[in-house]
Specification:
Number of helices: 11
Structural class: alpha/beta
Strand content: 15-25%
Oligomer: single chain
Strand order of the largest sheet: 7-6-5-10-8-11-9
Helix content: 40-55%
Distance between the termini: 69 Å
Radius of gyration: 25 Å
Order of helices and strands: HEHEHHEHEHEHEHEHEEEHEH
Number of strands: 11
Largest sheet: 7 strands, parallel
């Protein structure tokens, strides 16, 4: 009889332990599933996350280590985010590694709400209000999010007023784009349009001269005199400007190369064009500090 009782107790304990293990495993799997799901709109790294926290972007969840949470740079911003309904969760470095899939998170990651695009008319009106010589960039079929993020970063640095991207066959604003833009997107409006040709006509009607980057047949950029309202169209990585877009341009420009490299990628060509336009429109620009890192890019501490 005693053996039967002991066996029942053991069976009950084993059953309870099995349920506990299962509940623990289910909870862990549920949490990991949520992490993977939310990482689709993920930004990580101290510099990028600080830029998002200082903006008006809607944030869903923040993962941060206990050490970094009370860092003076983050503490008040996290309190503000929490008061606005953002979930702030203290996590281990190991879990952040898993959430970011091994990315250089530096102890913090944030899940952002989808990007809110501007209307083209709003972008044009705001650009013309801000300056007498507004510059708007147009991406013609840029499909690589890294290229798009780099274009946004350099455009904002050289005071371009905004960017226009097509809705189809082009990269949209994703977490990868936000990460590469390194905070520039928080101060840079983007309009997403259905018909690029119609958008170019709208820009022309608003008084913009349309310039397009071309690998062949364009006028060397240093021989052009930029003035007034400017719209610069950047061609796609592989094919450049589409034929229809090229016909819509008032001017085509090229970037002469001195080495054996036959061409530049879209973001590199865009950066050179943005700088030349900025240089001509701003005779006394402030100096750009390139000493922060060996690459000239802001260092994330």
């Amino acid at each position: 009889m005693l053996k039967k009782v002991n066996k029942k107790i053991k069976d009950s304990r084993d059953s309870r332990e099995t349920r506990d293990d299962r509940d623990s495993r289910d909870g862990r799997n549920s949490r990991e599933s949520r992490d993977v799901r939310e990482s689709n709109d993920l930004i990580y790294g101290r510099h990028s996350v600080l830029a998002v926290l200082e903006s008006d972007r809607q944030l869903n969840r923040i993962w941060i280590t206990s050490k970094l949470r009370y860092d003076p740079r983050f503490h008040s911003l996290l309190r503000k985010a929490k008061s606005n309904g953002t979930v702030v969760e203290e996590v281990s470095l190991h879990r952040l590694d898993r959430i970011t899939k091994g990315g250089n998170h530096q102890g913090v990651a944030v899940n952002v709400a989808p990007y809110t695009y501007w209307e083209l008319s709003q972008l044009i009106a705001t650009a013309k209000e801000n300056t007498e010589s507004p510059v708007i960039a147009i991406a013609d079929g840029i499909t690589d999010p890294h290229n798009l993020g780099a274009i946004i970063r350099t455009a904002e640095a050289f005071k371009v007023q905004g960017l226009v991207i097509p809705q189809r066959r082009a990269a949209s604003v994703t977490s990868t784009v936000m990460k590469v833009a390194a905070g520039a997107l928080e101060n840079f409006p983007i309009a997403r349009i259905v018909n690029l040709s119609r958008a170019l006509e709208t820009l022309k009607e608003a008084g913009f001269w349309i310039y397009g980057t071309a690998s062949n047949g364009g006028k060397p950029i240093y021989n052009l005199k930029f003035s007034g309202a400017i719209a610069l169209v950047i061609g796609s990585e592989g094919e450049g400007l589409s034929l229809l877009t090229e016909k819509s341009c008032d001017f085509l420009l090229s970037i002469p190369l001195g080495g054996k490299t036959p061409s530049l990628n879209a973001s590199a060509a865009a950066a050179i064009a943005f700088y030349e336009i900025y240089r001509q429109l701003n005779p006394n620009p402030r100096e750009i500090n390139l000493s922060q890192t060996s690459t000239g890019l802001p260092k994330e501490d």
